[in-house]
Design the sequence.
């Protein structure tokens, strides 16, 4: 049976991922054997191939950027026991706000406009999150439900805007805005790639959140409120304030992620700007154990997985469905192995005391 | 730090996952000794799909076209497909990878791929791209589309005649011109046969959600529509009609399997001839940009799955109209055409391509207003 | 009048998968366990149910198979969360992800297959009554089963010893354990029940509601069901209200559209979600109601060997 440990086992902190890998390798081998293919080839395509060129690395960074931004924001929320499931909605709201400002730019607008776009995106995401915060603060409405419902509302709002008032008049009626002017676009970091300043911003955000959580009074309060709410109350930490802080931070980060997507690789507002980054970030936050460094690494892994999965489809003819199977297996084994970090196994007969 | 360990772990795991099944989409390899055929490596043709291949709708038909092309050209081509590619930032990466992997002809089958296609095409001048339903071309980017409305008009004739209640129903996704052309052609065709017919439309804001499609279909039938059709990707609408013992016009593919008694006719898409033609041109080095908007006569659209219930003279009338369409003698959108609010859209003569592509209104006979983006 | 009848009929149909899944989640959460993987369970059950119905020609077999599939998935979750004390939220998300992938994978061969025709639904004789007939009595038996189940669960929770134990486990597993109740086993059973319900909901969707299988058929209803349980403050009667409210408003927007109401469709499409938020706000205004109803140990794992 499982006995809780007094201290987390350092050995297992390292061993857990390795054992998880081994188990997944095993599971994968079985599956591939059933499908009749060469594991080595697939391994190469999935893991090495995406990183085999400079462009590959930039694509990885590009894909990981929104995950990092949303993920560290969610880490702040989850640590404070605020279950913000609606990061996707905040991302869309940020994209709308940022995109709206971006549409105002013309060919002659100065380059600094991009800064305004980002500010607008942050504000948009924060505003959307503040709806959730207000509903919980004022009406005690559960934030899981409200933030999730608001995701769908945000999607419909975006759809209305790109089909209606913001639709490109020269676009033959397709639901999209015109392409943004250069002044509003995210500056590229590397010619010939899509890597833009957003990736740097993401890393800065992760660093900032780390400072917040580890080194500031507010961060301390947030953590205590999440871990021991009653003690926090005795200490005078306001859970109302932490609710607002957590959601505003998370919302603005998600908003920036959305803004960067539309003025970065996409270049316009369309009705589908995110393949679910806000939800994937929830997974990333957990896999990264709610720690910014862990989240950055988890985001990179997740991004590698997505890209590798795409390549596996086009190079190997792998069905896209298999990617989800492996992502799930990955998480399962990690979770299972993580048990041993905090629990010890003891083989003993008898009733639990 | 455990997170680093996790990184290693995950990386290795992914590595494992990568060794996954190989599902060759290419044609069987040529026989070992075949001196006759030129020893040219097969032309690699890539296909990018926005939804799963099994949807029985848009992507299913493109895939059927791909298979037809592969069969027709045999060992001279090898095809690759990538499905469920979202239209945002990911599309560019997928298209670029196909180009980098030596595909010389790439079909991108959704309008949302337009800008990514152009971007990649700019970098890979030696690769030819074909973008479906788009409107921007480049020296190596062609566009192609089909005049779905031609089939819709003919189907409308059938629906108008077979409806007992005089109300038709339409489950639609987004009010883009292509969809509006279909709706309007359907009504015009129906009214040509039965001037009192009316059409109700429900917009479900998604191309594919069988649950919603069924709900919308049921709503329409609940309001008196006894012939329904759809511009969405699943078979749900036809199945709903079958269940409620009403009638349906299928779209994209022949859905008689799902509505054996309900389906009156199906307006089907056929891309195979076009794909074969273009791949052949690429093989012969005669590929050129030549935007195509083909209809029934070019083989893009067919009317299939005629029900046995249809009276003979109706089928003959439809077929006669069909040949007039094919020969160019008849155009579904021929003036005088009035919009819903009585405004005259077209005084006389056939509607021009530009006018068709700018369609943002309903014609007379449709109940309700176009949801957004009028004028 | 007839229009109202039709609306009621559609509401009951559209609300049933939500209701079934949500009742299962309610039992889970009453025992203190959050299973976020409902969407994944529903998807797997949908594909299994479809496959079985297709191959055997019997719809009941499909529904039962779907239920079993749900239980299996729930047991996988239980192994992680109860057996290995893993974080419930992460495990649930993993289940959802895994379920989506597995279902798409299994379903590859099933896409585009039609099911055999069904005999007409509903209560014979009663279903032919004017207006009331099609509104209330012409549904598949699972719709009525879901209603009966809701009342049965309500009765179980609040009027039987078993329900009391379940609630005790959810409020304070430590106390329940001290009293000698098998906390872990109770939670396992609760999860199994939840899995069976999600399974029925999923199989219903793929074999009855829209008789076809396709990748992503469930389209987010599992997540809505999760939200609905919170919305309903963990009371079965309110779950029923929520499920039907959501289903009804969803249908209402189509109804209004078909009538020709001149509102942009996207604004109409928002209505079910906004309505849910509004009703939640109204219910939640009194914080005591929420605190009184939420199982105190929700989300925390329990170790009997402290």
Sequence:
């Amino acid at each position: 049976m499982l006995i809780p440990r007094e201290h987390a086992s350092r050995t297992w902190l390292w061993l857990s991922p390795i054992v998880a890998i081994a188990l997944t390798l095993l599971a994968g081998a079985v599956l591939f054997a059933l499908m009749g293919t060469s594991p080595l080839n697939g391994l190469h395509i999935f893991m090495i191939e995406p990183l085999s060129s400079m462009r590959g690395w930039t694509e990885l960074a590009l894909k990981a950027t929104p995950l990092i931004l949303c993920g560290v924001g969610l880490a702040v929320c989850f640590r404070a026991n605020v279950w913000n499931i609606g990061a996707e909605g905040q991302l869309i709201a940020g994209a709308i706000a940022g995109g709206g400002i971006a549409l105002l730019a013309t060919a002659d607008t100065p380059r600094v406009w991009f800064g305004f776009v980002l500010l607008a995106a942050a504000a948009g995401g924060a505003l959307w999150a503040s709806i959730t915060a207000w509903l919980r603060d004022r009406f005690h409405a559960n934030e899981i439900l409200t933030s999730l419902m608001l995701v769908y509302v945000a999607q419909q709002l975006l759809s209305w805007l790109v089909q209606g008032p913001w639709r490109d008049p020269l676009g033959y009626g397709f639901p999209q805005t015109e392409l943004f002017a250069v002044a509003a676009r995210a500056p590229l970091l590397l010619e010939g790639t899509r890597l833009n300043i957003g990736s740097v911003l993401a890393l800065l955000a992760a660093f900032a959140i780390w400072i917040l959580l580890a080194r500031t009074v507010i961060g301390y309060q947030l953590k205590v409120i999440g871990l021991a709410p009653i003690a926090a109350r005795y200490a005078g930490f306001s859970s109302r304030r932490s609710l607002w802080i957590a959601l505003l931070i998370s919302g603005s980060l998600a908003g920036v992620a959305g803004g960067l997507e539309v003025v970065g690789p996409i270049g316009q507002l369309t009705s589908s700007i995110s393949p679910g980054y806000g939800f994937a970030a929830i997974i990333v936050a957990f896999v990264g154990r709610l720690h910014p460094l862990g989240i950055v690494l988890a985001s990179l892994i997740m991004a590698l997985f997505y890209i590798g999965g795409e390549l596996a489809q086009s190079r190997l003819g792998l069905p896209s469905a298999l990617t989800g199977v492996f992502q799930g297996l990955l998480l399962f084994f990690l979770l299972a192995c993580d048990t041993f970090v905090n629990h010890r196994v003891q083989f003993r007969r008898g009733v639990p005391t | 730090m455990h997170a680093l360990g996790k990184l290693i772990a995950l990386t290795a795991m992914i590595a494992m996952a990568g060794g996954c099944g190989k599902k060759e989409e290419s044609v069987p390899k040529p026989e070992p000794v075949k001196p006759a055929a030129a020893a040219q490596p097969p032309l690699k043709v890539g296909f990018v799909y926005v939804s799963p291949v099994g949807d029985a709708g848009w992507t299913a038909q493109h895939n059927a076209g791909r298979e037809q092309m592969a069969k027709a050209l045999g060992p001279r081509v090898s095809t690759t497909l990538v499905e469920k590619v979202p239209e945002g930032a990911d599309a560019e990466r997928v298209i670029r990878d196909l180009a980098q992997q030596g595909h010389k002809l790439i079909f991108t089958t959704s309008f949302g791929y337009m800008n990514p296609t152009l971007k990649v095409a700019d970098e890979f001048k030696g690769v030819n791209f074909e973008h479906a339903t788009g409107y921007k071309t480049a020296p190596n980017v062609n566009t192609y589309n089909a005049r779905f409305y031609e089939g819709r008009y003919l189907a409308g004739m059938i629906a108008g005649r077979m409806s007992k209640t005089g109300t038709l129903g339409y489950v639609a996704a987004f009010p883009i011109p292509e969809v509006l052309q279909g709706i309007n052609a359907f009504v015009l065709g129906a009214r040509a046969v039965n001037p009192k017919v009316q059409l109700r439309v429900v917009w479900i804001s998604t191309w594919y959600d069988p649950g919603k499609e069924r709900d919308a279909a049921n709503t329409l039938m609940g309001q008196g529509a006894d012939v329904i059709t759809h511009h969405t990707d699943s078979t749900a609408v036809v199945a709903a009609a079958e269940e409620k013992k009403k009638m349906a016009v299928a779209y994209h593919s022949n859905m008689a399997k799902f509505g054996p008694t309900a389906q009156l006719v199906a307006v089907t898409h056929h891309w195979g001839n076009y794909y074969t033609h273009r791949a052949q041109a690429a093989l012969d080095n005669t590929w050129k940009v030549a935007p195509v908007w083909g209809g029934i006569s070019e083989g893009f659209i067919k009317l299939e799955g005629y029900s046995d219930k249809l009276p003979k003279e109706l089928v003959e009338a439809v077929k006669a109209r069909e040949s007039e369409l094919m020969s160019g003698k008849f155009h579904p959108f021929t003036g005088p055409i009035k919009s819903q609010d009585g405004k005259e859209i077209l005084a006389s003569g056939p509607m021009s391509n530009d006018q068709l592509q700018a369609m943002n209104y309903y014609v007379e006979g449709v109940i309700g207003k176009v949801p957004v983006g009028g004028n | 009048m007839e229009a109202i009848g039709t609306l009621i009929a559609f509401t009951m149909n559209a609300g049933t998968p939500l209701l079934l899944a949500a009742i299962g989640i309610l039992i889970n959460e009453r025992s203190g366990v959050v299973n976020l993987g409902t969407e994944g369970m529903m998807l797997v059950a949908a594909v299994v149910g479809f496959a079985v119905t297709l191959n055997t020609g019997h719809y009941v077999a499909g529904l039962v198979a779907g239920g079993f599939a749900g239980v299996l998935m729930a047991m996988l979750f239980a192994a992680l969360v109860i057996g290995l004390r893993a974080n419930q939220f992460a495990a649930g998300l993993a289940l959802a992800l895994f379920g989506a992938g597995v279902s798409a994978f299994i379903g590859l061969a099933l896409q585009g297959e039609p099911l055999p025709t069904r005999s007409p639904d509903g209560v014979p004789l009663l279903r032919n009554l004017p207006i009331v007939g099609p509104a209330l009595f012409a549904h598949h038996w699972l719709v009525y089963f879901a209603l009966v189940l809701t009342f049965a669960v309500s009765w179980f929770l609040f009027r039987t010893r078993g329900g009391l134990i379940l609630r005790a486990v959810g409020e304070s597993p430590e106390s329940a354990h001290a009293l000698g109740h098998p906390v872990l086993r109770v939670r396992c059973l609760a999860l199994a029940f939840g899995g069976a319900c999600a399974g029925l909901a999923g199989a219903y969707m793929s074999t009855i509601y829209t008789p076809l299988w396709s990748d992503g058929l469930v389209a987010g209803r599992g997540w809505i069901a999760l939200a609905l349980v919170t919305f309903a403050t963990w009371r079965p009667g309110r779950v029923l209200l929520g499920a039907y409210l959501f289903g009804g408003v969803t249908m209402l927007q189509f109804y209004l559209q078909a009538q020709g109401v001149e509102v942009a469709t996207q604004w109409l499409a928002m209505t079910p979600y906004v309505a849910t938020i509004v009703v939640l706000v109204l219910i939640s205004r009194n914080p005591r109601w929420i605190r009184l109803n939420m199982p105190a140990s929700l989300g925390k794992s329990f170790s009997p060997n402290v």
In short: The domain at 2-111+130-293 of chain C is CATH 1.10.3470 (ABC transporter involved in vitamin B12 uptake, BtuC). Chain C touches chain B at residues 3, 6-7, 9-10, 13-14, 104, 107-108, 110-112, 114, 117-118, 205, 209-212, 214-217, 219, 221, 250-251, 254-255, 257-262, 264-266, 269 (CB under 8 Å).
